[in-house]
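User: Teach me something about this protein's shape.
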Amino acid sequence: MLAFVVAVMLVLSAVMGFFEGCWAEISDAAMGQCVKAVELGIYLAGSMALWCGLMRVAEKSGLTRIIARLLSPLIRLIFGRLDTDSKKAVSLNLTANLLGLGNAATPTGIEAVRRLEKSSRPKRNTALITVINTASIQLIPVTAAALRSAHGSSAPMEILPAVLATSVCSATVGIITASILFSEEK
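Assistant: First, the predicted structure itself:
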């Protein structure tokens, strides 16, 4: 569906540009923005590669086990009792989100969903991990800071208090809502 919407927008833009007589400006803008999109993609890829690598080092060094133990009471409160593998997958995902890794947290989120589908309350737990990933409580908004830095911000991390407050509020509301909606699951 999204591909259809984008295709319609592109066709309508081209048709309107033709009728308005500004075809050259549309072509110049499209080509210029394509170059900027590639540059931004490369910039973000570097940031993501760094943080994904650091997450891998943390996992291999045992740091994620320590984080899992620290997050264990919170995970038990939200998800109930989980097996060790599920708890590890959820804690890795929460850690990636806490570090603000955004898209780099997706693989850990997918693994957490796979593990939680085998839990005692799969629908509820899958909904909860989805809500937590969507709300994405971020202690360090790496992706947002990288974008702000790429666009010339002199203080890319100044958004930290606002990001933390809004993500905690949205995660709390989402967790409560999902828990209520899936409270009947056995």
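Now, about its shape. The chain has a mean pLDDT of 82. Residues 71 and 77 are 10 Å apart (CA to CA). If you'd like, I can walk through any region in more detail.
User: That's plenty for now, thanks!
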